[in-house]
Structure formats: structure tokens, C-alpha cells
Design a protein that fits this description.
seven-stranded parallel β-sheet; Rossmann fold; about 375 residues; about 40% helix; 2 domains; six-stranded parallel β-sheet; alpha/beta
Length: about 375
């Protein structure tokens, strides 16, 4: 199949999933065409059967806001016509689903009927999509998609609650390619671990886009209490609007000397491979891809009991769930894992075993089945 994948090219979960899905489909022989305004961050090498098509918005003084959706629609039409695409797969509803519908209607005037699959990832439904300026368009675009998938049962329920959806919605969870998280360069990774934790401290990590919804302040407060009892280091990877507040809080709690802030990282694998615990106390998560990546690295997870996280993190087995904002419970659960090396080793093994439920080889055929159904 020739598949056009429309995505955001950033470090966010939807872009990562879309890119890794495209790469996996290409390895199976499908021809993949990524369509976005920048090259996806996970598409950093040459890959057979993959092409990237850049969307270039038109700059003109009349427009206070660039009409990106129209530029995207035109690019989709061009790629579909000249690359003979069989179908489109758009990730994140805004504005990709509406652009795909508009492009589909234009293509019909060229005697081309190209179906599109919409995958909803989270904030396009739970936050941005509910805004009155978007809701009617999102509802229409979802209902007129040829197929709709979501990444968790929680997100499916949210979609049906907040929008008047008539289409069937199929849950296809996010996945992880375990080969990316194998610890092949053990000597190099051991050196990195010693650099961060020279005295054998436990390493607690977190990776995100540093938005308020991630509640990174909770992580720092938990860490301040945990590190007073178990020698620990906190490593925060990512960047975003909350970073300055986090730096201030580290100073207030006098833990700056034990906190490393790495900024954006191309790959989470190296950091996770040297971590003992991963924290994701978000106010809401449609799925929690970062938590799954941690589990695949054999790293237990302390997370909130919100959104799709209970579907990913098995309480008392791969880690623990706490109510949003419950600092004391997260401290208690963190100490349960880190205070005893035998318990930590068992949680690490459990984390990896649980992650095997989300292997790429199990999830990829589900998307291929959806493609075959819409083409039929």
C-alpha cells in the first residue's frame, strides 16, 4: 500500500507514534509518505520506502495567522495525486482530520476516491477539541472519516462523551519497539550512570513537554521527600513552559544539586536504560507513551490514576498508581520500590514483562487490518 501519514513532527506522543508506525510499515514493504511542516524528530536517518513532503505555509502581511490548514490540504492533494496514494492516515484531529476531509473532496473532482483514517491521541479531544471554536469542525471531521481509532479505552469514552460521534471507534493502543530499548552498549551506559549518580544513588527520571498538565512540580516535591530517605538523583528530560517554575522550585526545596535538567532529547532510550524509576503524575494522559517506554526499558512507573494510565501501568505490579496530586501516596509508593534492592529488581522485571503486551508486532497488524477495511 501507498500510505500518506499526516502528523505533527515534534517530540509529542502523537508525532512519535505516527513516525514509528510509518517506519514499521515501511519495513514491511509499504510505501510511506510523511506530510508535515518539518521533518519528524524520529525520522533522522535514511529509510527505504519512506518519503517526506514538507508543507510550506504562505506568508503574506494580510494574514495575522498563517492559513496552515489550507496549505496542508493542498499538499495532501498534490502528494495523493502525484504519488498515487491508496489512503491517508492522519494523527491528531486538529487540523489534520478536517484537512484530510477537504482534500478528499477535492480529489474526487480528479476522479480519485482516497479514504482517510483518523487516529485521536488525547488533547485534540480532551482539551483543544472541546473549545467552541473547534468542536463543530472536529465532530464533523471525525464522523466523516472512513475509520476512527483511539489509543485507549479512556480516550474512546472521552470522545463519545464530549462529541456527537456516530462512527464506530476502534481502540488500538500505542506500542513500543523493544529493540530500541535493549541495553547493548552496557559499558557506555554504565559510564553515564556513574556520571549522574557517582555514589550509587537511585535515578528517578521523567520525560515530557513540560506543560502544566504534566504536574512536574509534584515530581520535584516527591523527590525532595524521597531523597531525604533514599540517596537519589532526579533527571528531567524535555522542555516547555513550566521549566522556569521547576528550576525555581528546586531552589526553594534545596534539591538543585541532585536534579539534572537535560532539555529535549532525540531518544529516551539512553536515559531510561540507566533509570531505576520513572514518574508520570499527569493530571490527564490519554495513554502515557513515556510510561510504556519506561516499562519496555525495565523501569517501574509511579503515575497518576488518570486517563489511560491505568491501562498502561499495572498497580502493584509494574509500578503504582496514585490519585492526581497525592504527593504523600506517591512518596510512599516510591519508597516501596526503591528502599529494597530485591523489591526493585522484581518491579523492574515486572515492568518489562508487562510491556510485552504492547509489542509492535502485536499492534501493527491491527492498523493494517483497518487500512484493508477502508480500502475494501
Amino acid at each position: 500500500m501507498k500510505i500518506g501519514i499526516v502528523l505533527y513532527p515534534t517530540f509529542g506522543g502523537s508525532g512519535v507514534v505516527a513516525t514509528e508506525l510509518g517506519k514499521a510499515l515501511a519495513r514491511k514493504g509499504h510505501e510511506i509518505h510523511f506530510i508535515s511542516y518539518n521533518q519528524p524528530v524520529r525520522l533522522n536517518n535514511f529509510h527505504p520506502n519512506i518519503r517526506y513532503h514538507e508543507v510550506r505555509p504562505f506568508h503574506y502581511p494580510l494574514f495575522d495567522y498563517q492559513p496552515y490548514e489550507l496549505a496542508l490540504t493542498s499538499k495532501i492533494v498534490d502528494v495523493a495525486r502525484y504519488e498515487n496514494l491508496d489512503l491517508l492516515h492522519v494523527h491528531y484531529a486538529i487540523p489534520h482530520a478536517s484537512a484530510a476531509y477537504f482534500a478528499q473532496q477535492i480529489l474526487k473532482t480528479h476522479d480519485l476516491d482516497i479514504p482517510f483514517v483518523t487516529t485521536l491521541h488525547g488533547t485534540d479531544i480532551t482539551l483543544v477539541g472541546k473549545h467552541p471554536s473547534f468542536e463543530p469542525v472536529i465532530t464533523f471531521s471525525i464522523n466523516n472519516s472512513n475509520a476512527v481509532t483511539v489509543v485507549s479505552e479512556s480516550l474512546k469514552n472521552d470522545t463519545l462523551t464530549h462529541f456527537r460521534i456516530k462512527k464506530d471507534i476502534k481502540v488500538i493502543p500505542n506500542f513500543v519497539e523493544h529493540s530500541m530499548y535493549t541495553k547493548e552498549n552496557s559499558k557506555g551506559l554504565e559510564r553515564k550512570k556513574v556520571e549522574i549518580a557517582p555514589n550509587g544513588e537511585k535515578i528517578i527520571s521523567h520525560i515530557s513537554n513540560f506543560r502544566r498538565v504534566k504536574r512536574i512540580e509534584d515530581i520535584v516535591r516527591v523527590f525532595a521527600k524521597v531523597s531525604a530517605k533514599v540517596p537519589s538523583k532526579l533527571v528531567l528530560a524535555g522542555d516547555g513552559p513550566e521549566r522556569y517554575k521547576i528550576e525555581q522550585l528546586c531552589g526553594e526545596l534545596k534539591v538543585c544539586h541532585n536534579v539534572e535538567m537535560l532539555g529535549n532529547v532525540q531518544s529516551s532510550a539512553d536515559l531510561l536504560s540507566i533509570s531505576d524509576l520513572f514518574m508520570l503524575p499527569s493530571e490527564t494522559e490519554s495513554f502515557g507513551l513515556a510510561a510504556l517506554e519506561a516499562l519496555a526499558s525495565g523501569v517501574p512507573v509511579i503515575s497518576s490514576n488518570a486517563g489511560g494510565l491505568p491501562e498502561v501501568n499495572k498497580h502493584g505490579y509494574s509500578g503504582f498508581l496514585s490519585e492526581v496530586g497525592d504527593i504523600e501516596d506517591m512518596v510512599t509508593n516510591t519508597l516501596k520500590i526503591l528502599s529494597n534492592d530485591e523489591d526493585l529488581a522484581q518491579f523492574k522485571q515486572n515492568a518489562y514483562d508487562h510491556s510485552l503486551n504492547y509489542q509492535l508486532d502485536k499492534i501493527l497488524p491491527e492498523y493494517e487490518k483497518v487500512y484493508e477495511e477502508v480500502l475494501a
